[in-house]
Amino acid sequence: MELNSYLKHHLGRVDKALDTYLPGESVLPPALHKAMRYSVFAGGKRLRPILMIAASEAVGGDSELVLPVACALEMIHTYSLIHDDLPAMDDDDFRRGRPTNHKVFGEATAILAGDALLTEAFILLSHPEVLPGVAAETRCRVIHTIARCAGSQGMVGGQVVDMESEGREISFPTLEYIHTRKTGALMLASIQAGAMVGGCDEEAFRALTRYGEAAGLAFQIADDILDVVGDQALLGKDVGSDQQRGKATYPALLGLEAARDRAVELRDLANEALAPFGERAEPLRQIAHYIVDRTS
Amino acid sequence: MELNSYLKHHLGRVDKALDTYLPGESVLPPALHKAMRYSVFAGGKRLRPILMIAASEAVGGDSELVLPVACALEMIHTYSLIHDDLPAMDDDDFRRGRPTNHKVFGEATAILAGDALLTEAFILLSHPEVLPGVAAETRCRVIHTIARCAGSQGMVGGQVVDMESEGREISFPTLEYIHTRKTGALMLASIQAGAMVGGCDEEAFRALTRYGEAAGLAFQIADDILDVVGDQALLGKDVGSDQQRGKATYPALLGLEAARDRAVELRDLANEALAPFGERAEPLRQIAHYIVDRTS
Fold first, then answer.
1. Average pLDDT of the residues of chain A
2. What is the CA radius of gyration of chain B?
3. Which residue of A16, A84, A283, B125 shows the fewest CB atoms closer than 10 Å?
4. How much of chain A, in percent, has pLDDT values that exceed 70?
5. Handedness of CA A246, B108, A213, A240 (dihedral sign)
6. What domain of life (chains A, B) (predicted)?
7. Tell me, what's the pLDDT at B240?
C-alpha cells in the first residue's frame, strides 16, 4: 500500500460522512451550525478518524461500519480545538492559517459551538439508525471509552495541567501526564473504538492499546519538535509558540536529540505491538512512521 | 403524599449519589475536580433529577435504577449554568447567592469544568457497572434522548437564539423556540429518560412527553414572572435582570396577567396528560403545581 493515497482516500470518506452527519447550515439556529461546520471543515488531516478506520481494518472489521464513530471522534477533537483557542485559554487568532472560531463568530458562539460539537458526537454514537450493525452493548462500550478519554481524567484533565504548568518548571512525569492525556487520550480512544467496532478479541484489544498509547505519545513529541524546527508555512501556525508561552515540551526538558530518539523508540514500540496482525496492520504501521516523520 | 418531604427526600438521595459518581477533589487534576464539584454542590433544587425519578415511578419503575441517569442529567444542567454565567455569555458574578464558577476558579478552568461535566454525564450513562439493570439498548436510547435535548437543536440552540435576541424585538414563535429549548428541552429529557428506564410502553411515553413539554414551558414562564415580581432574597439573584438585559420574556411580550394565565393553562394541560397513571403520578401532579406557584 501507498500511505499518501490511503490517507487521501479515507480523508475524503471522512469529510463526506461528516457533511452527512452534521446538521446543515440552514438548520435552526443557522449561526450555531455555521460555526460548528466552520471548524470541522477547516482542513484537518482527519488523523484520528483514519487511525480508527485502520485499527478496525487491522482486526478484520468493515471500515464502513466504523465511519460514524470516526466522525463522532473528529467532532470531539474539533470542539477541543475551538475551546483551546479561546481568549481565556491559548488565545490563538489563527489555526491552520485560518482565523479561529471565536475570531469569526465571537466568543459566546465559539463556546457554544464547542459544546454542541461535543454533544453532537454522543447524539451520533447513540443513534439507533446510524450504527445498525453495531450491537447496543458494543455501542455503550465505545461511548464509555471515548467519553473517558475525553473527560476530566483524560483530554480535559491534560489541558488543565498544561495550563497550570505554563511558565513553570515541571517534572518529567508531569510532562508525560499532560502529553498522554491532552493529545494521547483521544488517539488511544480512536484505536480502541476502531478495535471494538471491528470486533476484536481481548488479546487484540490489548495489543492495539499498546500501539495507541505509544503512537499517541510519539505524535505529541513530534509536535513539540515541529514547534522548534518546523516550517511555519507548512504548519500553518507560528513556530516557537510553545517556548514563547513557557510551555513544557520534550525538547525543552530532554533536548532536541533525546526527544527525537524517544519519538523513534515509541514508534518502534508501537509497531512491535502490531506483529500479530500481519499484513492487515500495514496502514497502522505506516501511520506510526508518518506520525514521527511528518513535516506538518 | 406531602410534596415538601418528597422533594427533600429525593434531593438528599440525588446529592448523595452525585457525590459518589463525581471524581473526588483529590483526583488528578484537583483544581478541575474542585471546580466541577463547586458548581454541582451549589445548592440546586435538583428539580430535573426529581422529575426523572417521579416519571419513572409513574410508570411503575424502580427509582434506585434511575438515580445514576438523574445524576448525569444534573451534571449537564450544571455545565450549562457554568457556561451561561461566563463573561462572554451572561457575565454573571453570582448564582444562588454564591460567586459563579469563573469568579472562583478563573475563566479557563470554568470553561473546562463545564466541558468535563458534560463529558462526565456520558461516562456515567454508558457505565457498564453503574446501570446493571438497564439493557444496553435502553441505555443507548436514553443517551440519544438526553444528547439530542442538550445539543445544537435543543438546549444549546435555545441559548444561541436567546443571545441573538437580546435587546431586540422578537416574535412570539421565537420566544417559544427559546423557552422550549433553553430550559424546556432538558426537563423533557428528564421525563422521557425516567419513563424509558422505568420501562414504559409507547402510550405512556407519549403521555409523559405531553406532560414534560407543558411542564417545561410552564417552568420557564414562571421563571420569567419571578424575574419581575420575585423576592430577591428567596431567589438568590437580582430581580429585573431580564429587563435590564433586554431579554425577551413572557411578561414582556404578553403582559404579566396573560403570562400567569398561560402558565396555569400549561400546568393543567400537563396534569391532564397524567390521567392514565392514577395515584402513581401524584408526585408529578404536585410538581406541576409547585413549578407554577414557587417563589424561588
1. 94
2. 18
3. A16
4. 98
5. negative
6. Bacteria
7. 77
Instruction: Report the distance separating Cα B96 and Cα A294, nearest Å.
Output: 51
CB B120 within 8 A of CB B22: yes
Overall fold of domain A3-293 = Farnesyl Diphosphate Synthase (1.10.600)
Question: What does the mean pLDDT of chain B come to?
Answer: 94
Phi/psi class of residue A277: alpha, beta or left (left: φ > 0; alpha: ψ in -120 to 50)?
A: alpha
- Where helices occur in chain A by DSSP H, the ranges are 3-21, 30-40, 47-58, 63-85, 101-105, 107-125, 136-150, 155-165, 172-182, 184-197, 202-229, 232-235, 241-245, 250-254, 256-272, 282-293
Note whether A223 and A248 are within 8 A (CB).
no
How many CA atoms are closer than 13 Å to the CA of A209, on its beta-carbon side? 10
Query: What would the grid cell of residue A158 be?
Result: 491534560
Task: Tell me which H or E stretch contains B137.
Answer: helix B136-150
Cβ of B29 within 8 Å of Cβ of A161? The answer is yes
pLDDT digits (tens, 9 = 90+) for A84-110: 999 999 999 999 889 999 999 999 999
pLDDT at position A274, please?
98
Q: Is A151 left (phi over 0), alpha (psi -120 to 50) or beta?
A: beta
Q: What is the SS3 assignment for A251?
A: helix
CA dist A159 and A181 (Å) reads: 8
pLDDT confidence tier of residue A58, bands split at 50, 70 and 90 = very high
Query: What pLDDT score does A132 carry?
Result: 81
Q: Taking a C-beta distance cutoff of 8 angstroms, is the pair A68, A17 a contact?
A: yes
Whether residues A126 and B147 touch (CB distance < 8 A) is answered with: yes
Q: Is the pLDDT of residue A261 over 70?
A: yes
Q: Which residue of A has its CA nearest to B120?
A: A151
Neighbours of B128 (CB within 10 A): 12
* CA count, 13 A, side-chain hemisphere, B117: 31
What is the reported pLDDT for A244? 80
CA torsion sign for B176, B178, B179, B180 is: positive
Quick check: helix, strand or coil at residue B93? coil
Rounded Cα gap, residues A100 and B68, in angstroms: 37
* C-alpha distance from residue A147 to each of A155, B67, B97, B214 (Å): 10, 20, 32, 32
pLDDT of residue A233: 66
Regarding an ipTM greater than 0.95, the answer is yes
User: What chain A residue is nearest to B86 in terms of C-alpha separation?
Assistant: A108
Partner-chain contact B164 A83, CB within 8 Å: no
Scanning every residue of chain A, which has its alpha carbon at the shortest distance from the alpha carbon of B137? A136
**Cis bond upstream, residue A283 (ω within 30):** no
The cell 513535516 sits on which residue?
Answer: A295
- How far apart CA A255 and CA A249 sit, in angstroms, is 9
Q: Is the preceding omega at residue B23 within 30 degrees of 0, hence cis?
A: no
Q: What's the alpha-carbon Rg for chain A, to the nearest Å?
A: 18
Nearest CA-CA distance, residue B157 and chain A, Å: 6
In this prediction, residue B237 carries a pLDDT of 64
Whether residue A139 and residue B144 make contact (CB cut-off 8 A), yes or no, is no
Boundaries of every domain in chain B: 3-293
CA distance B101 to B38: 7
User: Measured between alpha carbons, how far is A115 from A76 in angstroms, rounded to an integer?
Assistant: 9
